[in-house]
Amino acid sequence: MRYVDPEEDQMGRDHVGWDPNMCDEALFRANRGCWVLGERAEREQYALLSFEGKVRQAIEIGRLAPVAGGRKAIEGRFLKKGDEVYDAYVGEDQPVSPSRNPIAYFDSPHGARTCGCDCGAPVTRGWFLIGHDQKALHDRVSKVGTVRDFVNWFDSTYVEPASE
Predict the structure, then answer these.
(1) Cis amide bond preceding 23, omega within 30
(2) What is the pLDDT, as a whole number, of residue 94?
(3) Of 10, 64, 68, 150, which has the fewest beta carbons less than 10 angstroms from its beta carbon?
């Protein structure tokens, strides 16, 4: 565990890292952000926090929230024993390959979701099977009519979100 200045930390934390005496909530608060996460991270469902080559916590990602400095923080819930992803990765017998980059991505059969186009196929990364995002989009366009009908409908109903 490393102490940081809350005045300088983008999230006002006073410590980051891992300590064997930390409870799950403290570990989550200390390590859920501030990460440089690109578009690929937006398709992920889970994050694994590791220290000294072992996964220490699994998190189900609710969303990635922007924080100062162009970084992001994970909002979600930490998993516990009995959750499929936790049981598969957290613990002494689940080593993690060392990496220079603290962010790594890999395919996993655990925690698969159903494809967003409603085809029923399992998806382990992202929201759709390859090409199925287009199928979902065109299926919905056809419910309105032509592409032009859809664009007109969208333009007449969409309200731009207020700037923060």
Answers:
(1) no
(2) 67
(3) 68
